[in-house]
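Shift notes (night). Ran Homoserine O-succinyltransferase while the centrifuge was going.
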Amino acid sequence: MSSVFPEDSVGLVEPRTAHFAEPLPLACGREIADYQLVYETYGELNTARSNAVLICHALSGHHHAAGYHSPNDRRPGWWDGCIGPGKAIDTRKFFVVSLNNLGGCNGSTGPASLNPATGKVYGADFPVVTVEDWVHSQARLADVLGIDQWAAVVGGSLGGMQALQWTISYPERVRHCLSIASAPRLSAENIAFNEVARQAILSDTDFHGGHFQELGVVPKRGLRLARMVGHITYLSDDAMGAKFGRELKSDQLNYDFHSVEFQVESYLRHQGDEFSTRFDANTYLLMTKALDYFDPAAAHDGDLAKALSPAQAKFCVMSFTTDWRFSPARSREIVDALMATGKNVSYLEIDAPQGHDSFLLPIPRYQHAFSTYMNRIAV
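Came back to this:
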């Protein structure tokens, strides 16, 4: 590995693409006839093919979870702090697979892809996908890679929901499930936040019913607002206070509605501006709907224990004290349901001031617990 990268980095990585010609039936009643999934791998698959770990991404995530795409990259993959030699998911021991979900906008087939039936960009015509649909597509990717069973399926937030769904849809194919900062279903408050974000996009005059690409425009205002709303919910009040307080950008107030006066305003606008240049609006709508629809207990009269009863995996559930978007109470619901059916489950509630974003951050107790559990299952 080149010396330009840290010793505990997986170094240079290259995305790969898997093509699927067999139609994928979807929960909405439609199907995707032909599609591709973009993914990356880190580490080596052992001879027994027993050391594979699947990384499931959250709402705005993608396949690039660790390492660098070029020596000039300023930032590594989104979970680089947890994936690499000597890290929690140790690539000296595990073969790690990270993909961009179906419906995404980072190479996998999604709303920005060409619809083979029309020769035009899908746009709003791309079907609604669910967490269950993603898991079925991921299982097909596992087949392509020759992986009959994952040593672990790991994810935070929406990724944690996918990890749970894996144990329900393919119980024999998962030995360990790590669901971090997640929930068995969204609360009404969370659905409400998602709806506000969607309405910001849908009401943007540049959205054009989801067919904005055909007109050569982007609903940037809607995407900016959606991201700003999201970032408010990802941080705790303590984290925002510590990071920004009521700090002003200058010593003088402007007494108008257009100036960026507070540091927190500047932060939110920056996050919104940056996001609007790299994320597809239709994908954002799809991802938030997948969050809203996830509720495995619904098919069992609200009985989560019954929904999780097919699972054969051992579980590790982690939450963070100041995460009010996916609070520890929601993780404890998962733990209680697993215990009710006699599953092997470990639970850790980590005292951290950073809110929902904690699962992405180098918090010592979190990383130590993560590493300890993963070391226990290394083969």
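The chain has a mean pLDDT of 93. The first helix runs from residue 131 to 145.
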